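Priority: low. Protein: Flavohemoglobin expression-modulating QEGLA motif protein. Input follows.
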Amino acid sequence: MIDKALLLKTRELSDQLIVLQTPIRILDAINWDKQTKEEFFRQKCQKNPLIDRAYYQQRDLGFVPSELRQAFSTLHRNIINQLGQLNPIAQYMGKMCTEYKTVLSMLEYRGTPEFHDLSVELFGHPKDLFHAGEPSLSELANMLDKPLKNLLVADILPDDPKNIDAVDAVRILSEQVNASMAGINVEVMLSDGIVSDAAAGANNIKLNQDVKFSQRELDILEVHEGWIHVGTTQNGLAQSYLTCLSKGTPSSTITQEGLAVLTEIITLKSTPRRLSKLVNRIQAVTKVIDGAEFVDIYRDYVAQGLSKDDSYTLAQRVFRGSTATGLPFTKDIAYIKGFVLVYNLIRVAIQLGRIDRLPLLLVGKISIDDFRLISQLHDLGVIESPQFVPPHFKDLRGLATWLSFGRFIGDLSFEKLENDYKPLFL
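Result:
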C-alpha cells in the first residue's frame, strides 16, 4: 500500500490536472459552423466548402495554447518532483500531461497538414497494422463491409422507423438510463449545438433537437453513451485520489469507443446498418488519405442512399480541423480500432484465467496500453474498483462463455464451412 500522505498529494496533483484540462474541447474547436453547410447547399453541393487556416484562427479557443501547454509542462515537472519519476502514479499522470500537450499542438495547427500528422499521433492511422503480416485496420474494415452489405442489400433486416421526436426521446431515454443506472442521476436533454445525433457529458446525454429517433437507436444510446461514456466518467469522479480518471485523453477515447461498440454488440442492441456506418467512417478516412476531397466523400454517401443532410454531416466528420481538400482528422477510426483492442484484451484475459481484472476497464477513461499500470495502481490501493458496472460486466459468466465459444468457432475454416452450408441456401 502507498503512504497516505502520498495519496493526498496524488489527489492534489490530479485535481490540478483536471483544472488544466477543463477548457480543452477538441470537437468544439474543429467543427464547421452552420453557415458553411448552408453555403455548400447554396452551391448545389458542387463546390468544396471554403475552409482554411484563417477560418479556424478566428474562432476563440478560450485559452492560449502555448500558455496552457507550458502549464502542463510545469505540472508534469511537479508530479515528478513530488511523487518521483519511477512512481506508477507519476508515470500515469505524466503520460496524460504529454498527451494533452500534443492535443494543444494539434489545435494550433488546425487547417494545416500538421493537424493531420498530430491527429495520427493521437488516434492512429487506418493503414496501421495490429501485428506484422496481418490485415491493416482499413483492410479489416473492408472485410467486415462485405457481409454487412449483403445483409443490407437483401433488406431482410430493415431499420426500425424513426418515429420518436426529440422531445419524446428525451423522456423515454431518461426513463431507461435512470432505471438501468440506479444511483447515477443521468440527465437527458435537448441540444442545438451538436453535430451528431447525440453526445455524452459527465452526467448527461444530449440529443440533437432536430433529429427523430427509433426505439432501437435509444436503446443503443442507453448502453453506448450511458453505460460506458457517462458510467466511466462517474466512476472516475468517484475515485478518492486519481480523480483525473474522469477525463479522457485521445488514447482513452479509442478504448472508450471500443468498449461502447462491444457493449452494443454483446447486449444485442447494434444492427448491421449501425456497424456499416462505423466501417464506412474508416473507409472515408482512408479515401481522403488516398486523395479524395470533401465533395468526393459527400457524393459517396449520397450514392449509398443517405440523405443529403446525413451525407454532409458524415463527410464533415472526416474533414473537421482540416480543409476540404486536406488530409483527414482520424478520430473516426477509434470505434473499430478500439473494438478490436478491447475484444482481444478480453479474449486474453479469459485465456489466462484473469477475467476478474476486466471491470478495471470501467474505473474511468483509461487506455488499453495503460491496463497493466491501472491494475498495479488498483492493487496498491490508489485506484478503487468501479462503482457503476453494467450488467454484462457485473456477471462475467455470460461474457466469458460468449467469447470462449467465439474463439472456438473462429478457429474453424469459414471457407470449408461455406462450401458445406452454401448449397442449403440455393
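The mean pLDDT is 91. Residues 29 and 59 are 8 Å apart (CA to CA).
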